């Protein structure tokens, strides 16, 4: 069974057809890169899958379950987690609290008044583990808003990971990062256990090609190619529509 | 609040309890009770950025129910408190169900609408609420335990009761805000969209916060009739809600204890002004304007929030 | 039959009044994102100006323009200080500021115009009644309906169809951009504030023949106007008109059928409508993140 199955997804804004029938499957633990020129519909697709925007037509199934009508929060609780193009950490909370917030909900203690020791400890452990993994242990008590931009992006991804996602939708997680910072950030996704499936949008093509086992190319609201990096790179339609434009 | 401020507060309260006259004790009790309600508003405004213009309806609604219960079924402390808390929570639940789908301006208006519904009932349902005349003849409060009963109608016992309520409510509010739900509420103020992406139902969170705040406001409202000896429709009117916001801003939003400082100052100024001029409304209005222009952050700085957040 | 027709006409007259007043509030709220709780004071001020004007023997047909100008001038002054520095602030600060001002204005007007109910000395022309299906209906309210309708059309044309309206809407959408084009947005906002306050005064002058003028009316009108704007949805002319008519009819008929709980029922209706349509009846569709 596929982890994620999109069938015939369509969405328009007024007269503008942003997505014109998207079919896509993802397997458990898979890293899939979603690329395409600006305005191809990548962010809209993310919004549809994560439930922030309703689709005009088509279905989204996650772990065999139709997601029709589920709120973004409900989808997140199923393990379908997303990040945003703009970093959205909670600036007024310390780094570790950002992570604990995510972990606690996953452990069923998000709305508690009394702190429920078991949940609090497990959430804190999860937070510490992730901070160690990212080499941020020294920043645990810093306010998230006081972190430099690069670290905010890392924290963004860590917060997503703290939810123990089965599928992670990452929208430009490396935007504004230097190449080595970006490499390290994506490297995190490979080391974390359990490893989630990742649907990655990024502008740095070298990064995406090097990192993902499969690529999907979105152009003008259609998927024009899906496959391993080499075959996508060789696809004439992709070269014409996208890579050709860069050369 | 810092430790030395506490150390100052407790002996002050002690001195007042020992040597204060009836008038001052009652006045202090009114400050503490109203301050408790204003503090519960701070949970919404300061932590959740939910500016409610209907909070007086929770406080005053509970005061009406408590007064009615006392008049018709006797003024036992426990039943009265429970009825007030239940009323505050129930009204907050209704208000929250209507208003939490919206934020900002629409939240403001919807809390105003629900609050005014309570006002309309208080004003027009004369057979029960006394209409514009309100309720007078509030019986003396008493605590019944087992077979014994202690009267609690003296100014001193009312003051101590109010102080106990204020302290308890303050500690409860602090523990609420330090707990996971309070942290999530702060997060919902900063990044509601991200919080939803984390799997939190932001609406449920806001609703819980409102019901919690409503419970505290309700407990405060339950004691109010016995201190003030009168409950009238102005207590649930939206202008009272606006006044509560002014008290909060005067003390400092987001500090919890600032609510008591702001309420005390406001009530002092109001009492003083209304005793020597007929134009005190003009001056009160002017006070609002001056506060928001010159003291937008309030008197008490949110020190503990920065350290603890 | 005749009774309900008269009540319907009453509802229309009241709705027109709410519409004019609501349009003024909606203007600043949706264009400048400014919560102006002094709008009720503008209305009552206009009412008092009209009462004084009509009592002074000056030409009666100038009473409404006089009220408009007086309230607009007050709005202009308020814009200079202290409103202008609050346009960018959050709603909490705006609510506090304008609520405080409205309390002050209410007291000042009580001082200046007295605490009793004041009714205007209407000219004979506007005093009589016409008979509709055998039931009397005040001529004044017919004139109110007509004048209000014409005014609404003029306003709609001004803000929806002229370059002025475009400038205002652009100033709101992207203040920087408009300033880059060499337009002074603070002046644009001042003009909008003046017009909005003027509309409040104008509706007060028109409404005084129907509702009279008394302390406390400012607050009633303010709440009604707020409800009208929110019911209709921000930023739409049609919405405010729809909101005014819903509220006008709901209030009029609730008063006919259940006078005691008319206020409660009206508020209940508003709450239910807003639960069903949280962004108002006519909400501009928002784009997602």
Please, could you describe this protein's structure?
The complex is a heterotrimer of chains A (about 250), B (about 300) and C (about 290). With about 250 residues, chain A is of the alpha/beta class. Helix content of chain A is about 40%, strand content about 25%. Chain A has a six-stranded mixed β-sheet with strand order 6-7-8-3-9-10, with helices on both faces. Chain A has a four-stranded antiparallel β-sheet with strand order 2-1-4-5, covered by helices on one side. In chain A, a hairpin with a 2-residue loop joins strand 4 and strand 5. The radius of gyration of chain A is 18 Å and the shape is globular. Chain B has a domain of about 210 residues. Chain B has 14 helices and two strands, in the order ααααααββαααααααα. Chain B has a two-stranded antiparallel ribbon with strand order 1-2. The C terminus of chain B is likely disordered. With about 290 residues, chain C is mostly helical. Chain C has a domain of about 200 residues. Chain C is about 70% helix and about 5% strand. Chain C has a two-stranded antiparallel sheet with strand order 1-2. In chain C, a hairpin with a 2-residue loop joins strand 1 and strand 2. In chain C, about 50% of the residues are buried. The interface between A and C is small, with 5 and 3 residues.
How would you summarize the topology of this molecule?
The complex is a heterotrimer of chains A (247), B (309) and C (289).
Chain A: E1 4-13, E2 16-26, E3 31-35, H1 42-50, E4 57-62, E5 65-66, H2 72-78, E6 80-82, H3 95-106, H4 117-133, H5 149-162, E7 167-171, H6 179-191, E8 197-201, H7 205-211, E9 214-219, E10 222-227, H8 229-234, H9 236-246
Helix pairs in contact in A: 3-4, 3-5
Chain B: H1 3-19, H2 22-48, H3 55-73, H4 77-99, H5 104-124, H6 126-129, E1 142-145, E2 148-151, H7 155-178, H8 180-190, H9 192-197, H10 202-228, H11 238-251, H12 258-276, H13 280-294, H14 303-308
Antiparallel strand pairs in B: 1-2
Chain C: H1 2-32, H2 39-55, H3 63-80, H4 91-113, E1 129-132, E2 135-138, H5 139-161, H6 163-173, H7 175-180, H8 185-211, H9 217-232, H10 237-257, H11 262-276
């Amino acid at each position: 069974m596929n982890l994620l199955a999109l069938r015939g997804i369509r969405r328009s804004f007024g007269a503008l057809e942003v997505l014109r029938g998207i079919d896509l499957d993802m397997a458990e633990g898979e890293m899939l890169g979603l690329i395409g020129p600006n305005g191809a519909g990548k962010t809209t697709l993310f919004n549809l899958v994560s439930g922030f925007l309703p689709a005009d037509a088509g279905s989204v199934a996650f772990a065999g379950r139709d997601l029709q009508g589920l709120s973004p929060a409900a989808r997140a609780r199923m393990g379908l987690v997303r990040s945003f193009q703009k970093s959205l950490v909670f600036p007024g909370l310390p780094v570790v609290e950002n992570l604990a917030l995510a972990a606690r909900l996953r452990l069923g203690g998000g709305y508690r008044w009394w702190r429920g020791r078991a949940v609090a400890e497990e959430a804190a452990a999860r937070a510490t583990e992730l901070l160690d993994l990212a080499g941020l242990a020294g920043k645990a008590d810093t306010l998230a808003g006081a972190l430099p931009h690069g670290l905010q992006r890392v924290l963004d991804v860590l917060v997503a990971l703290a939810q123990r996602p089965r599928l992670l939708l990452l929208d430009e997680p490396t935007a504004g990062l230097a190449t080595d910072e970006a490499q390290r950030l994506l490297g995190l996704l490979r080391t974390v256990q359990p490893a989630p499936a990742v649907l990655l949008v990024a502008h740095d093509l070298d990064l995406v090609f090097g990192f993902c086992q499969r690529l999907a190319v979105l152009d003008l609201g259609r998927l024009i190619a899906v496959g391993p990096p080499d075959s996508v790179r060789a696809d004439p339609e992709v070269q014409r529509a996208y890579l050709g434009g860069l050369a | 609040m810092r430790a030395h401020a506490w150390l100052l507060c407790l002996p002050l309260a002690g001195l007042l309890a020992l040597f204060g006259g009836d008038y001052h004790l009652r006045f202090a009790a009114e400050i503490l009770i109203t301050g408790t309600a204003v503090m519960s508003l701070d949970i919404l405004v300061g932590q959740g950025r939910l500016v409610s213009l209907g909070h007086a309806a929770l406080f005053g609604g509970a005061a009406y129910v408590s007064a009615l219960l006392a008049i018709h079924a006797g003024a036992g402390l426990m039943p009265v408190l429970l009825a007030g808390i239940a009323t505050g929570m129930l009204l907050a639940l209704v208000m929250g169900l209507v208003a939490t789908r919206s934020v900002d301006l629409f939240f403001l208006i919807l809390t105003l609408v629900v609050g005014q519904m309570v006002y309309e009932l208080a004003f027009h349902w004369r057979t029960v609420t006394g209409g514009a005349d309100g309720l007078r003849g509030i019986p003396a409060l008493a605590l019944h335990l087992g077979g014994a009963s202690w009267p609690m109608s003296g100014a001193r016992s009312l003051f101590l009761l109010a102080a106990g309520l204020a302290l308890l409510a303050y500690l409860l509010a602090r523990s609420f805000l330090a707990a996971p739900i309070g942290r999530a509420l702060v997060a919902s103020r900063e990044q509601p969209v991200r919080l939803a992406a984390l799997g939190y139902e932001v609406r449920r969170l806001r609703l819980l916060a409102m019901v919690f705040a409503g419970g505290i406001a309700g407990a405060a409202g339950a004691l109010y009739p016995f201190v003030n000896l009168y409950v009238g429709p102005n207590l649930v009117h939206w202008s009272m809600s606006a006044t509560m916001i002014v008290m909060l801003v005067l003390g400092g939003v987001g500090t919890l204890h600032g609510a008591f400082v702001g309420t005390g100052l406001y009530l002092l100024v109001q009492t003083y002004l209304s005793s020597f001029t007929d134009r005190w409304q003009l001056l009160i209005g002017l006070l609002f304007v001056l506060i928001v222009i010159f003291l937008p952050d309030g008197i008490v700085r949110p020190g503990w929030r920065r350290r603890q957040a | 039959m005749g009774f309900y027709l008269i009540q319907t006409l009453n509802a229309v007259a009241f709705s027109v009044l709410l519409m004019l007043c609501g349009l003024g509030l909606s203007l600043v709220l949706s264009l400048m994102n400014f919560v102006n709780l002094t709008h009720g004071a503008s209305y009552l001020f206009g009412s008092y100006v009209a009462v004084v004007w009509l009592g002074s023997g000056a030409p009666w047909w100038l009473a409404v323009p006089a009220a408009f100008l007086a309230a607009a001038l007050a709005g202009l002054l308020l814009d200079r200080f202290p409103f202008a520095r609050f346009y960018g602030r959050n709603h909490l600060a705006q609510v506090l500021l304008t609520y405080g001002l409205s309390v002050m204005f209410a007291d000042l007007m009580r001082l200046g115009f007295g605490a009793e109910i004041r009714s205007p000395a209407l000219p004979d022309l506007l005093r009589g009644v016409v008979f509709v299906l055998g039931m009397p209906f005040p001529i004044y309210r017919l004139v109110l309906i007509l004048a209000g309708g014409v005014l609404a059309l003029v306003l709609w044309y001004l803000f929806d169809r002229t370059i002025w309206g475009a400038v205002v809407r652009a100033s709101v959408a992207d203040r920087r951009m408009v300033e880059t084009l060499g337009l002074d947005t603070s002046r644009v906002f001042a003009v909008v504030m003046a017009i909005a306050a003027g509309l409040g005064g104008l509706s007060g002058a028109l409404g005084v023949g129907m509702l009279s003028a008394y302390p406390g009316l400012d607050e009633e009108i303010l709440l009604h106007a707020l409800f009208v704007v929110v019911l209709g949805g921000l930023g739409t002319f049609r919405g405010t008109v729809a909101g005014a008519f819903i509220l006008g009819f709901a209030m009029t008929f609730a008063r006919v059928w259940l006078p005691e709980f008319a206020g409660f029922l009206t508020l209940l209706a508003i709450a239910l409508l807003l639960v069903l349509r949280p962004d108002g009846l006519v909400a501009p569709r928002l784009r997602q993140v």
